[in-house]
Amino acid sequence: MKKSLFGMLGKPGRVVPLLLVFVMLIGLLPLTAAAADRGAWAPNVSYAINDTATYGGKTYRTVQSHTSLNGWEPPNVPALWELVKDGGGDGGEGSDTVAPTAPANLTASGVTSSSVTLTWSASTDNVGVTGYEVYQGSSVVLSVTGTTATVTGLTAGTTYSFKVVAKDAAGNRSPDSAVISVTTTTGNDGGAGGQLPKHTLTGYWHNFINNSSNLKVRDVPSQYDIIVLSFAEMDPAKPGGVTFSVDPSLSTALGGYSNADLIADIQSKRAQGKKVIISIGGEKGNINLNSASPNVTNFVESMYGIITQFGLDGVDIDLEHGMNVTNLTNAIRQLQQRVGSDFILTMAPQTIDMQNPNTSYMQLYNNLKDITSVINVQYYNSGCMLGRDGKCYSQGTVDFLTALSDLSLQWVAPSQLGIGVPATPSAAGGGYVSPTVVNNALNCLATGNGCGNYKPVAKYPDIRGAMTWSINWDATTNYSLANTVKPFLNSLP
């Protein structure tokens, strides 16, 4: 074979055609290898760009390489998957002339001085409903795919009328839903938990050693309103249970920092009006609530024991490896009832967890929003993500912070949403912005000023604030973030 091939290459009349064929074949090889049909979509699978997978009877193509997790199903994360269009059929979408039924049971909840959450029963259609338009008066203010939407940018003490219309893929529109009237509140909606400033700064405190500063809680600066102890650990001997104590290596590095020292520091901070809570999860941590019994009871009992022992105010949810929404909801409800009305609940979803209203984190928020103090979205360690305008924005820019916040503000009340950023470039794999850029993003969202190229659809003067990973990293720059961002939060209306 070698001899005949290279022998032919020696004949002038055949050199060019054979070379062209050879180059074309080689050029096609990477394309063939790059894409693969991966069968049915599943969690914990590494997908490459252009891989295809099926879910819900439809085929999707990967647009960003990633390892899948529960809650990242293809319809839920358009930043990762695109629907493969079916070229066959009976003439296309235009042959469908049947409109969906009208949305029913439109109700309002979570009314604040500037927002309201609307929910309704799903419409039906002969082919399938693709989305809903939410009307404020005679104007469309939101387009969503689920059966809930949060309308923001409203005026305090004002009555508004709302209705919803369903659409299908062919553009057929349903009759209008019933119209409801909602009057916004006149007070300052500070969220759950009480005794927190309208605009808060949240920071994580490391209970471990890394390349940041080793820090005693007593030395956390006063600019931080919520101090999050990181992290409670899963109890391997008790399904659902968690444990917490000062890390031995950290204790040694701090000259013998003990549980008693930490407890005293926590009480000192609380006496100053600060809230100290404990986080579950993190980059490597998780909890085991896959079964309701005995896991939920074990979680509630162990977590309540930690809260009581250390004198804490509540819990932060930073689960990055999936969650059982039903069991976690039940566990947090029970824990809040044990702690009382001053219970502080925060969440720290990743950007991918906030790409649409149907993710696990959004389901959890909808279940617990009446007791949620703030959702601080982690706007870092992320690839290109979709903003409210459907465009993909890269991390580390003011547009990334504002466009993705504007997206989440369709579903989360402004008084419950915060911007999460790394304190230094070393604190995360990517997504760092200077504290000045954080202020620009907050200013853009609250007042419409200081924006980059992206302009939010409304002003959100009740935006809750900012969060950083972490206080320990902030200490390495003499608290540049806290000293820059907290004064600006204090200046907001």
Structure description:
This protein is an alpha/beta fold. Helix content is 27%, strand content 24%. It has helices at residues 2-9, 12-34, 248-253, 259-271, 295-310, 325-339, 360-368, 398-408, 435-447, 471-475, 480-491; strands at residues 37-40, 46-47, 52-55, 58-62, 66-67, 81-83, 104-109, 116-121, 129-136, 139-144, 148-151, 159-168, 180-183, 200-206, 226-234, 242-243, 275-282, 314-319, 344-347, 374-378, 385-386, 392-393, 417-422, 465-469. The strands form 6 sheets. An 8-stranded parallel barrel has the order 14-15-17-18-19-20-23-24. Strands 1-3-4-6 form a 4-stranded mixed beta sheet, with no helix packed on it. Strands 10-9-12-13 form a 4-stranded antiparallel beta sheet, with no helix packed on it.
Element layout with pairings:
Blueprint: H1 2-9, H2 12-34, E1 37-40, E2 46-47, E3 52-55, E4 58-62, E5 66-67, E6 81-83, E7 104-109, E8 116-121, E9 129-136, E10 139-144, E11 148-151, E12 159-168, E13 180-183, E14 200-206, E15 226-234, E16 242-243, H3 248-253, H4 259-271, E17 275-282, H5 295-310, E18 314-319, H6 325-339, E19 344-347, H7 360-368, E20 374-378, E21 385-386, E22 392-393, H8 398-408, E23 417-422, H9 435-447, E24 465-469, H10 471-475, H11 480-491
Helix pairs in contact: 5-6, 6-7, 8-9, 9-11
> Rough shape?
globular
Protein structure class: alpha/beta
* Sequence stretches where pLDDT stays below 50 over 5 or more residues: 1-34, 86-94, 187-191
> Which sheet architecture does the biggest sheet show?
8 strands, parallel, barrel
Radius of gyration, rounded?
A: 26 Å
Continuous helix count: 11
Which sequence of strands runs across the widest sheet?
A: 14-15-17-18-19-20-23-24
| Mean pLDDT over all positions | 86
What is the beta-strand fraction?
15-25%
Helix content: 25-40%
Per DSSP E runs of 2 or more residues, the count of β-strands stands at 24
Instruction: Please report the distance between the alpha carbons of the first and last residues.
Output: 80 Å
